[in-house]
Design goal:
The chain has eleven helices and 14 strands. By secondary structure, the chain is of the alpha+beta class.
Length: 357
């Protein structure tokens, strides 16, 4: 795996925010204490560590595929560029997105592989991919997507029941055979040397329902509720990091928390190394309207009744929500601070200055 085992350890003297550790196998076994821990994490911070997930083999294979793909010549990768119209699948070069309302360009590159394309392989659904992806679609990409789907869908089912929704309510919005914006993403951020502040990924909430992140270096920071300061999240060997996204926040009337987070260079000596990460984003099916499921759950109805009118009734589909947020980040579409506001998700907390924690 690229630079993931030779970098310095995460420094012990850097302030971090603790996350609850949820044991996936215990949740699958119906352990009530573990399910309560998952619920606490999902409703208070919206982030947690996930252990015993049994996806490490698929993760290692995907990191190898990602490294091979990012190492391709730029002109080859640009044949698969996302473009400026809100497409979620393909390659994103460094410098084509803006990171703030001043139009600051980004420095990372990544590749998004559609769940739909992986599961339908070899028939393209949305687009084609570099040969480094297609040659490993059966051996690495599809197995990772299938395992990540299994994990995230099971966790969503557990949250569904805790919300008091009829069984299968949220599953109906996340059917694997239906088209969606679900993606596997491999990200490379360059080494960072010097005292100047850099953002790898601007402060944001995630677009979809549930995120499954794997990284070995620091850099991820969360903004805890009620805080005006970002804190690093320390990577733990063998643990994934999960977080709630906008869609589950909306479906639940705000009960499930989609928290603001960002990515900056890793702390101290780790910053001198490339930062690689692998993410699976579970998102609702394209045609699903993003609105609170008040009519199906008394708990959700009560939460919506205490929220500002219309806050959890977006009137848009999951596909429209994702496309808007992708378009608004593209540098070609940036016209000034007003256009940057279109990047907003569900966050309604003022985002603090971008200084390091």
């Amino acid at each position: 795996m690229p630079g993931l085992t030779t970098a310095p350890a995460f420094p012990e003297d850097v302030p971090t925010h603790p996350l609850l550790v949820v044991d996936y196998q215990l949740v699958r076994a119906g352990d009530e204490d573990e399910i309560a821990k998952l619920w606490k994490a999902a409703t208070e911070l919206g982030f947690w560590y996930l252990r015993n997930h049994d996806i490490e083999e698929q993760v290692d294979a995907m990191f190898d595929v990602g490294q091979e793909t990012i190492a391709l010549p730029l002109e080859e990768k640009l044949k698969y560029e996302l473009g400026d119209q809100g497409l979620a699948f393909g390659y994103k070069a460094a410098g084509v997105q803006v990171m703030d309302d001043h139009g600051t360009r980004d420095v990372t590159e990544f590749l998004n592989i559609s769940k739909d394309d992986a599961l339908a392989w070899p028939t393209p659904v949305h687009r084609t991919y570099p040969s480094t992806i297609t040659s490993h679609m059966e051996s690495a990409v599809k197995p990772f997507v299938q395992k990540a789907l299994e994990i995230n869908h099971f966790l969503i089912d557990v949250l569904n029941d805790k919300l008091g929704l009829p069984k299968g309510s949220l599953a109906a919005f996340h059917q694997a055979e239906e088209h969606s914006g679900c993606i596997a993403r491999v990200i490379r951020a360059p080494p960072h040397v010097g005292p100047d502040e850099k953002l790898f990924l601007t402060a944001h909430t995630d677009y979809g329902s549930l995120t499954l992140l794997h990284n070995r270096l620091g850099g991820l920071q969360v903004l805890p509720p009620g805080s005006d300061r970002f804190y690093y999240v320390k990577p733990l060997p063998g643990h994934a990091i999960c977080n709630i996204g906008d869609a589950l926040n909306i479906f639940s009337g705000g009960i499930l928390r989609s928290s603001i987070h960002r990515v900056i260079p890793p702390p101290k000596d780790q910053a001198r190394h490339e930062r690689w990460s692998l993410v699976y984003f579970t998102r609702p099916n394209d045609s699903v309207i993003l609105r609170a499921q008040s009519e199906k759950s008394g708990d959700i109805a009560a939460a919506v009744a205490n929220a500002p009118a219309g806050k959890f009734d977006t009137g848009v589909t999951a596909q429209e929500w994702i496309a808007r947020r992708f378009r608004s980040q593209r540098a070609a579409n940036y016209k000034g601070p007003e256009t940057w506001k279109e990047h907003a998700g569900t966050e309604d907390t003022p985002i603090p200055a971008q200084g390091r924690a």
